Fold this protein.
Amino acid sequence: MDTPLIELENVGVAFSAQRRVGSGRFWALEDVSLSLRQGERLGVIGRNGAGKSTLLRVLAGILQPDRGRMRRSTVSCQLLSLAVGFTPYLSGRDNAILSGLMIGLRQRDIVSRLPAIKEFSELGDFFEQPIASYSSGMLMRLGFSVAIQAEPDVLLIDEVLAVGDAEFQEKSGNALRERMRQGHTVVLVSHDETQVTTLCDRLLWIEHGKSIREGSRDEVFAAYHEELHLVGGAT
Amino acid sequence: MPQHVLELILFSTYAELRAERSRSYLGLIWWIAEPAMMMGAFWLVFDVILNTGGPDYLAFLLVGLTLWQWMKSCITHGGYAIWGNLGLVRQVSLPVLVFPVVQMLADTIKFCFIFALLLVILWIGGYPPNITYLALPVLFAVTLLFAAGGSFLVAAIVPLVPDLRFVIEQVLTVLMFLSGVVFALDDVPSPLREAIALNPVATLLEATRGVLMHAQWPNWIALLKVGAISAIVCVAGVALVLHLSPRYPKLAN
């Protein structure tokens, strides 16, 4: 098999509890190991507060591990986030360019995609208006239309598969699934089991900041369900 | 520097200026009106009421305040830039130095407008253009280097200790009065005056006033010293930002 794009070995990330002199630290990630290869679609499952989002931010290069080792080849990893750097007094067009630059696109690329962004976001003439005048639904549509333009080697997705009203939810969900099917390497964090089952071929299960199991989808899911069942039965 | 970071800096600067323009009814007019009002206030207090200055006082004050406002806004705006963008720092992986640089660029562009206006006022007021204007680019480069050094240092620390903002405003006010921005340091008694003259801001102001008002070439040795100090502070500031940058994404603002 080819060498992994990213490999985590017993990685931990600590945060200060609050901004006070002498306040303690807590470990949002304690001990997580994983390896991600080219073209893999890895789903991360676990209950609330398990550290899934923190893990994505480590993979995105936003957070650096406080312990353990991370090896990554020279690949770009991008966390798909909506409305990055949006500024209220700028037009939808200017915000799209600014946001595109922040998620790592070149200016000429984002400019050439502006017509597509305008169309996908269904904003019409509002595209030239300051986004301060947008409804929250319009903002999300613009945010998603820009975010989906990112073209990293590894796409990291945190449960934002669908935004907006029912119609746009379906449209945005389809666009994302399309991107994932194009053979990109993807890491997906989601509570929605059907989504993970249909979109991912491998799973990582983490709990309380520790990786419990990593492997094929069916194998990890079976173990995860068994555990949920046991815990559910005990209470 | 990767080209896309350069594009990000330039477009963010444009966005910053553009957003600022749209935030108020009068927009661009405030770039000029705000410093003009402040200069008017200082002129009223120190010239009309206290009768501090001599015949040159208005020009002295205008040059001092124009330059000081540029330095001060670079240090405060640039200095608070990382802290103000922590939300973004938590979301995307970006070189955080971008934020102070963008603020300083925007403030420098605004300074250019105000400086152009200042030149017109000086010419009308009897201080014509002269050959020593050739020294201005050097003076401005050193001024910007000094401001950038302060800005990076503040920018590095404020995200960790936001309380510092309250102190910095006061320190800058004291520095302004000790730098001969609003009154000439000749009036300060002797031992104190020499100490104050070591202050880089005082050197820069004196040199700029010499050029604009008296057609006097700057004291190059003094300027070189200020430049060297500024460069050292600048490098230290950048190093500190880079050293602390892994901690910023974990902070709340």
User: Anything to note?
Assistant: Chain A touches chain B through 28 residues (CB under 8 Å). Residues 83 and 143 of chain A are 4 Å apart (CA to CA).
